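Lecture 7, part 2: worked example. A protein chain together with farnesyl diphosphate.
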Amino acid sequence: MKSDINVSELEKESLPVHVAMIMDGNGRWAKKRLMNRVKGHEQGSRTVREIVSACRELGIGFLTLYAFSTENWGRPKAEVKALMILLKRFLVSERDELNNKGIRLNILGQKEKLPADVREEAERTMDLTRNHTEMVLNLALSYGSREEITRAAQRLAHKVRSGELRPEEITDETLSAHLYTGGMPDPDLIIRTSGEFRLSNFMMWQAAYAELFITRTLWPDFSKEEFHKILIDFQQRDRRFGKVKCNTSNDGSPL
Ligand code: FPP
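Predicted complex, written out as structure tokens:
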């Protein structure tokens, strides 16, 4: 989807700090072309590169990409293997690019479940980029929100048992701090491609006040241009976080 939108139309000061994306539709993209699903994932990897670079150009601080869910282990073995090969390839081929652009790589999810070679390449890229502050790229790998929240609950329970924490000290903030995203801001904008209206076990805690944007575009066809249009839409939304607008009086009547 090409557009004539100029990036200067975006108000830099009201860009989202954290954008998260559910990259869906690779399989359908391939099916439409009578190709193997893996071809869709390959093309999807190209979109990943384009979107990482778009976020860096705009100065977006955090980008989280849902690359492999806890449920995705249930896909055919050959597809899981192909996805792991693509992930490893990305972690190796983008290492210098991420490093040169000041982007810190982070993995959200069950790192221990990843094949050793993928884990090693991820650790290498994370080590190399660990001091960067321009942008954080979170790859959600073997990630599921329910697993993340359960794990946080277990970690808090251990702290209570050891006397490090009192039960009444378990708050919204302490629970947030024990998630994979601990210390990061919640996403302001969650984009899902391919037209499905679901969160699919993605950032369910963190999504509390996120703006949601669903596009029918399949992930391999998603582009920088469409992303810019979505950002313009985001900037026109009225985010109230459960409160009333600022231009109302204390009793809620419009000023
Ligand atoms: C969902 O589409 C997509 C995935 C399960 C994998 C996402 C992976 C990539 C975009 C490529 C590799 C990632 C990186 C970070 C290099 P689907 O297969 O469920 O599509 P469908 O719903 O049309 O079948």
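Residues 37-58 form the longest helix (22 residues). Strands lie at 18-22, 62-69, 103-108, 135-143, 189-192, 211-214. Keep this in mind for problem set question 3.
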